[in-house]
Structure formats: structure tokens, C-alpha cells
Design a protein that fits this description.
- The structure is a single chain.
- The chain has 335 residues and is α+β, with helices and mostly antiparallel strands.
- The protein has helices at 2-9, 45-48, 54-67, 129-222, 269-279, 320-334, and strands at 14-17, 23-27, 71-80, 83-93, 104-113, 225-229, 235-238, 283-288, 294-303, 309-318.
- Pfam families: PAS_10.
- Residues 131-221 form a coiled coil.
Amino acid sequence: MAEKVILENFALPGVLINEKYEIIHFMGKTDKYLETPVGKASFNILSMAREGLRFKLGTALHNAVRQKRTIEYEALRIKYNGGVRIIDLTVRPLVELTSVTGYMLVMFDDKKISEKSSGKKPAKAETDPFIVSLERELESTREHLQITIEELETSNEELRSTNEELQSVNEELQSTNEELETSKEELQSTNEELITVNTELQNKVDELSQMNNDINNLLSSTEIGTIFLDTRLNIKRYTPATTRIFNLIQTDLNRPISDITAKIRYDQLEKDSKKVLDTLSMKEVEVKDLENNWYSMRIAPYRTLENVIDGIVITFVDITRIKRTEEALRVSERY
């Protein structure tokens, strides 16, 4: 693509350089304008430019990159082979290349070859070439300095803009920090409230645990068999005394009462329990176990503190002594 552009527009000797000013391709003979640098090998075009060309070439490259257009300098005087050559310099950005960026063409066009320094002496009316070269280098240096000043001014404006943005960001960060500080205080307050609530809940748990212990001890000390059933007549809880009436073990919890073998001669327990749930009326009946011990069985609805029916409670009070005393009285009355 680069060679095509050269052929169509210039057909002059030149080089193709990248964004770092490094030569990546030579077109034609360029030894009149470029020379191999002394010391470390380098393909940087500014390092290879001959005396009298370097300053203008640097200015042209900088302007071409900055303005993104072709830059031309005419009648540049460069030293070559002991003499001075007059050339035109053209720097053209290759905007046609879309796959890569920063490529430029640097073209050289000879206009006049002066006599060598060893030849005829210049006429008095002519200006000293050395002075002309110094003046051109001075002009190039001034242009380069002006460009540098403009770049510094641009950089200064960008720095001011960046500083304003940083100040804005800093203000936002300060605002965010204040919000975070406020959130931290709110979280601390919420944490203190949670600690208070947790303490209250722990106290309630301790109270409930103490009440549960009291109830367990009360039920155990009375030796009244008590069994708690849910609304589906599954076992929720029972007291130790109940094991004298039913063959219960700890794994029987949540099992239906109908699955448990009873030691009493009474087969209406499930039916009566359902009736109590339906009617909410307590039922009391005397039953006898297989060892002829008598119990007063009472079936009552289980009510919560909110007066919600959550099952039934069956209690068994041992009345064997009462029954035997009554039997003894009846026998004594016969005789």
C-alpha cells in the first residue's frame, strides 16, 4: 500500500517509518540524505539524518503527527560528500492504512547540487553557506522551541483539567467517606440494638428453659401419666409414668397413638380422642390395666395461650387404692 501511494504521488527516494520514527522500508537511494550513525546500530531516522536536515526533519515529523497532514519544507541545505545539496522535504502521514496507525512517508527531492567546497570559491556577493546553514538551523531550532512551548501549554492545560477532575473526584471521595462514616454509625447503633434484643431473647430462652424444667419435674413428681397428642393424634410428648400404661420409648415420638400397644383394657381411646377434638368437650372414664390396676382417664383439648386447639391431653390418675377400698366396703356390707 505504501509503495502504491509513493508511485502514484511521488516516485521519489524516501523511507517508510513507524510511530517511533524507526525506518521499516527504504524506497530508492537515500544515502544522500541519510547516513549510518556512529556507535550503537539504530534505524531511527533522526539519528540517520545528515547535517542540516535533522532539525527540519524533526519539526516536520512532529507537525505531521500533531496536525495529521502532509508537511513540506523547500530548499533545505544539507551537507553531502564535502558539498551542499538543496532538497525539498515532504512528510506524509499514511492515513490510507487502517490496519496500523502512525506510519509516515518521508520523501526527498533534489533541487540543486552546489559546487564542492574544494572547487571554485563563491563570489563575494553570495552569502557564506556556513552562515546560511547556521541561520537555517537557528530557525529550525526556534520552530522546534515554539512547538515545544505549544506542547507544554497544551500539557499544562491538560494537567489543569486533570487537576480539576482530581479535585472533583476528591470531593466525591470525601462525600462518600462521610456517607460511609454515617453508615458506620448507623450500623453501630443497629448492632447495639441487636445486642440488646439478643440479650432479651437469651433471657427469655433461659426463662423458658427454667419453666420447662419446672414442668418436667412437676409432672415427674406427681406420677400422673400424661401424654400429649397433636391434631392428627401423633405423640408429641409424654411423662415417665405413662410408660406403665403404654409400651412407649423415646423413638415413638411423632408416631400415631394407635400404633402403640396399650396395657389397659380399653379400645375406644382413638375414637374418644377424635370426638374430643370435634366437640372440644372433655371426656373422663375409669379404665383397668392387665394387672387389675385402675386409672381415671381424662381426655381434654390442648389449648395454647392464644386459645388455639393444638391437639389433646390424656391423663391417667391411679385410683387402684380407692377402687379396692370401695370393693372392701361392699364386701363388708354383705356380711
